[in-house]
Amino acid sequence: MSWKNIAPLREALARLDDASYEVVLADVIKISAHVDEAKIYDVARALMPWRKGPFEVCGTFIDTEWKSNIKYNLLRPHFNLKDKRVADIGCNNGYYMFRMQEDAPKLLVGFDPSPLYKTQFDFINHFVKSEIVYELLGVEHLEFYEEKFDTIFCLGVLYHRSDPVAMLKSLYRGLDKKGEVILDTFYIEGEGEMCLCPESSYSKIPNIYFVPTIGALKNWCLRAGFSSFEVLETSVTEANEQRKTEWIEGQSLEDFLDPNDASKTIEGYPAPARVYVKLIKESK
Question: What's the structural domain count of the chain?
């Protein structure tokens, strides 16, 4: 969506009422206030599709495609962000960053070039009033940013890059000394160091270039310069985490899998599974 198309949405945000809001940053990010609930609903609907969440805004429950609280709660035991400079690469509408505020990081910066997701973030942040910085930038800009980061989250981005090692190097260069990356990506089972290279799409997603075994992913990370590779969790994407709702446009997981065999994608590849890893950059 271009800035030209986003203009009426930005104007709608400018017309939102100012009020005193009660905010609960839990699995469902809940915002309560005595405002025009119909106006809130209309703006939220105009901002579709909503991928990450869920949110409840002044009586409107935004049932997002992804129940992002599942991933956040899976990762939560593996990080402490207190007083750290934190970046979220491919931050979408900022759901994870809103949740990360519970740790009181020193700085919280989201990177995502999508004007729609930035507008969704601004809609939620109108009520939350956080000090999160949202940059309309991609991972390729990270190493040139004015800050180096102690912790970088990169969740669900790596498989969209045609040169995954180059991207990992960008993450490495965006870290301060002894910084860490929390990364998740698709993977395939296997003992060898190999990758699935989809012919034209994977799970109906055209820009999926490589789906590695964990061994191959480790080699990528070591080649990028990281000194430590730790597998935190693995999971299979299921219908309770990603599904079609009235708040998205188009298809979702149920449409991406073989209707006769949910262990395979519609193309016949292994169904989506994710590996979550922590990478460490040692000081030199």
Answer: 1
Quick one: pLDDT at residue 282?
86
Range of the domain at 140: 67-236+269-280
Residue that has been written with the tokens 């970046």 in this structure: 87
Identity of residue 229: F
Q: Residue 56 pLDDT > 60, yes or no?
A: yes
pLDDT, residue 283, reads 61
Q: Report the 10 Å Cβ neighbour count for 19.
A: 11
> Coil, strand, or helix at residue 220?
helix
180 contacts 279 by C-beta, under 8 angstroms: yes
How does pLDDT run across 206-238, given as a tens digit for each residue?
Answer: 999 999 999 999 999 999 999 999 999 999 999
Residue with tokens 């960053």: 97
Strand partners, 107: 85
CATH number at residue 273: 3.40.50.150
d(CA 71, CA 174): 24
pLDDT exceeds cutoff 80 at 45: yes
**C-beta separation of 155 from 96 below 8 A:** yes
Give the H or E element holding residue 98: helix 95-100
